[in-house]
Amino acid sequence: MLNRLVHLLFIFIGGTLGYLFIPEISNVLREIPLWLINPYVGTAFGVIIFYYTTFGLTHYIVNLLKLMEESIIKAPVTDVIFGTMGLILGLIVAYLIGIPISAIQIPVVSTISPIFVTIFIGYLGYQIGFKKRHELNNLFSITRHFSKDKKKAEEGAHKKNRIEMKILDTSVIIDGRIADICEAGFIEGTLVIPDFVLGELQHIADSSDKLKRIRGQRGLDILNKIRNNLHANVEIEIYEGKFPDIQEVDSKLVKLAKVLPGVVITNDFNLNKVCELQGIKVLNINDLANAMKPIVLPGEKLKVQIIKHGKEYHQGIAYLNDGTMIVVDDGQEHIGRM
């Protein structure tokens, strides 16, 4: 394949030179048939002459091209890139220089000179790009690091000024501990209460089941408590979007967290897992409660009040302040005492 391409290149060069110069040579010579002056005849002669005269050179040129190909493949990518960039710039400069040269009214100068200028300037550009690759690479690296540092600084300032919205789900509102956490100032920013969560709370509060009705009313009372006892750094926002194409409330919460974007506050285990799979940040109240449990070491003495009988004989049951149950052996006799 490469042999044929080289042959076609020589045929093209021979045809071009024959088209340009054989009619001129025929005019200089006398007693030449008129059909030799025809440019197309000159093209045919040029093709034939170059095809046969360069037939033996094709093999060497192909080997030279293969050596160049192997050298390029073995060369580092940066060397190839900067060498190519230099070559392209050199060819652009050669083209600009060739424009006034082509305007010269001397056929040899206007046709041959641009070719040599293109080869020379292109080679010079390649050498400059290749030999100056380390300096150019350092220059680009400095510019790139400067851009990255500037971008990181802007992102850091943006994150510093932006506090993520926190979306409350139904379970965490009914749980009620979120009100105490907000009142204590551990949460800041905007608390988003979706309209579809309010609708679910209203539906639970209107339920015929007594337990569900109590839970729904408790959730509505918790929302009123949060609104009436807002900390200075907390705001409440009602999101009125419906997402009619989504049926389940948990799926709507996941969609809303992606749209805002925001953080979902919940104590629902399944919703927690779904959010993690979707790449959404979750604040779980139960995780916070577990993190706040006091650490009791083996052998440490505690003062607790035994309040009831244990499961086994002579056992008593006591509780820590966080609700952790303690079983006290031989504590049955001390029920009601510290």
TrEMBL record:
Superkingdom as given in the UniProt entry: Bacteria
Segments traversing the membrane: 5-22, 42-65, 77-98, 104-126
InterPro entries in the record: Nucleic_acid_metab_PIN/TRAM (IPR052041), PIN-like_dom_sf (IPR029060), PIN_dom (IPR002716)
Keywords per UniProt: Membrane, Transmembrane, Transmembrane helix
PIN domain mapped to chain residues: 164-273
Name used for this protein in its record: Pili retraction protein pilT
Organism: Halalkalibacter hemicellulosilyticusJCM 9152
